[in-house]
Amino acid sequence: MNAGPAQATCPRCGRVTGVRALPEVLAELGRQASQARRRPAANPPQRSPARRYGQDDYTLGDDQGDSGLPGQGLADIGAAVAAEVLRRTVGRALKKHYQERVAPQLQRREDELRRRQLERAQRYPDLRYCADDRVLFLTGYTRTLPLEQFLITDQPDAAVAGLRAP
Ligand SMILES: [Zn+2]
Questions:
Q1: Where do the structural domains in the chain lie, given as residue ranges?
Q2: How far is the CA of 147 from the centre of ligand 1 (A)?
């Protein structure tokens, strides 16, 4: 039995309102994901809200000579500044590493996954998806399959064949 152009009724909720073709749904999910990904990049890079040096709050200001032990105070400040410089450098290096290596890698992996899911969905043009129930079904059959299950199974053929089971 073919799905045909007729409106597909979800066997679970009995409605047609949330029902769409699966590839269409996946393509839209992909678009939403890439939009969400672009949004944070539009914000300016984060700056640390205050100058904080380790556990203690050292403020580099005009009052640093008031401690009575200016030499000691300067040494502490020197150490604190060195620690801060190190922290910022490491932080930048990690951030750079993340932006240049980790993020694109994750992005590529995600894109690849989405592409494969879309390809998988396109192999079964008769599949319909009910957004209200997050299940897949075939028009005219009563069985349903959770979308996630279809996307992760190693045997999509069997999963889809199961939808035709009486
Ligand atoms: Zn439904």
A1: 19-41+69-164
A2: 12
Task: Give distance in angstroms: CA of 83 to centre of ligand 1.
Answer: 58
Contact present, 11 and 143 (Cβ < 8 Å) = yes
Span from the CA of 161 to the centroid of ligand 1 (angstroms):
20
pTM across the whole model: 0.60
**Torsion sign over Cα 73, 77, 78, 80:** positive
137 and 163 Cβ atoms separated by less than 8 Å: yes
Q: Alpha-carbon distance 147 to 138, whole Å?
A: 13
Given a contact cutoff of 8 angstroms between Cβ atoms, the answer to whether 147 and 135 are in contact is yes
Which helix (H) or strand (E) segment holds residue 146: the answer is: strand 145-146
Residue 7 pLDDT > 60 = yes
- Ligand 1 mean position, distance from CA 129 (Å): 8
